[in-house]
């Protein structure tokens, strides 16, 4: 709900709606609009992204949300892959929250993505295997992707301050791309 409430005023001027999928009916409807209900579990999409063109609402993607990537992010991969295969945007949003208590840890939240030089398997989902179009981390200790990755997909680090948050501009880019690829030529 926070993601929807926070980003709605930023995205509405661009004819974009962001909707938290809180009920099974909402989740099923979003997946049905993308024609992937038979291939994925309805529990695997948290946010739907809609754009408006000529007073008609079009789903163009979604966001998978994880506080920590240890929360079985691999379970979101099949949905993400199906979405991307059908031409929909699939973003991963995370707080990349992972710390360890004493005596083995220091409670510092260093996250789970590793670095480009020493990537974790979770970083490889994005940078090497391209399982999501992009990952947005709101842990400022997360290491962002280098300029180029083998999959072309990247990890971005931001804060919720508009000037330091890459998510809205990437959502707007995704809507513009979707419009031009799927709607303006029909």
Structural class by sheet pairing and helices:
alpha/beta
Gyration radius from CA atoms, angstroms:
16 Å
Q: In this structure, how is the largest beta sheet organized?
A: 6 strands, mixed
Average residue pLDDT:
91
- End-to-end distance, in Å? 34 Å
Question: Would you mind describing this structure in some detail?
Answer:
- The structure is a single chain.
- By secondary structure, this protein is of the alpha/beta class.
- It has one domain (2-183).
- Helices cover 28% and strands 20% of the residues.
- It contains five helices and six strands; from the N terminus they run H-E-H-E-E-H-E-H-E-E-H.
- It has helices at 2-11, 24-33, 77-85, 121-127, 167-183; strands at residues 16-20, 47-53, 56-66, 89-94, 134-137, 154-157.
- The protein has a six-stranded mixed β-sheet, sandwiched between helices.
- Strand 3 (56-66), helix 3 and strand 4 (89-94) form a beta-alpha-beta unit.
- The radius of gyration is 16 Å and the shape is globular.
- The chain starts with a helix and ends with a helix.
- The model has no long low-confidence stretch (mean pLDDT 91).
Describe how the helices and strands are arranged:
Layout: H1 2-11, E1 16-20, H2 24-33, E2 47-53, E3 56-66, H3 77-85, E4 89-94, H4 121-127, E5 134-137, E6 154-157, H5 167-183
Parallel strand pairs: 3-4, 4-5, 5-6
Antiparallel strand pairs: 1-2, 2-3
Keywords:
186 residues, alpha/beta, 6 strands
Briefly say what this structure is:
This protein is an alpha/beta fold and 186 residues long.
């Amino acid at each position: 709900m926070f993601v929807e409430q926070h980003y709605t005023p930023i995205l509405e001027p661009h004819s974009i709606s962001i909707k938290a999928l809180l009920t099974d009916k909402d989740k099923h409807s979003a997946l049905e609009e993308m024609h992937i209900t038979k291939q994925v579990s309805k529990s695997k999409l948290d946010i739907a992204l809609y754009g408006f063109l000529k007073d008609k609402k079009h789903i163009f993607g979604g966001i998978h949300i994880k506080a920590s990537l240890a929360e079985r992010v691999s379970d979101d991969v099949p949905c993400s892959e199906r979405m991307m295969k059908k031409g929909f945007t699939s973003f991963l949003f995370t707080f990349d929250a992972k710390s360890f208590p004493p005596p083995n840890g220091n409670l510092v939240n260093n996250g789970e993505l590793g670095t480009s030089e020493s990537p974790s398997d979770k970083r490889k989902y994005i940078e090497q295997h391209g399982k999501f179009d992009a990952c947005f981390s709101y842990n400022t200790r997360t290491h962002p992707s280098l300029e180029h990755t083998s999959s072309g997909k990247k990890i971005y680090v931001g804060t919720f301050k508009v000037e330091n948050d890459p998510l809205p501009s990437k959502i707007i880019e995704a809507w513009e791309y979707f419009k031009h690829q799927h709607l303006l030529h029909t």
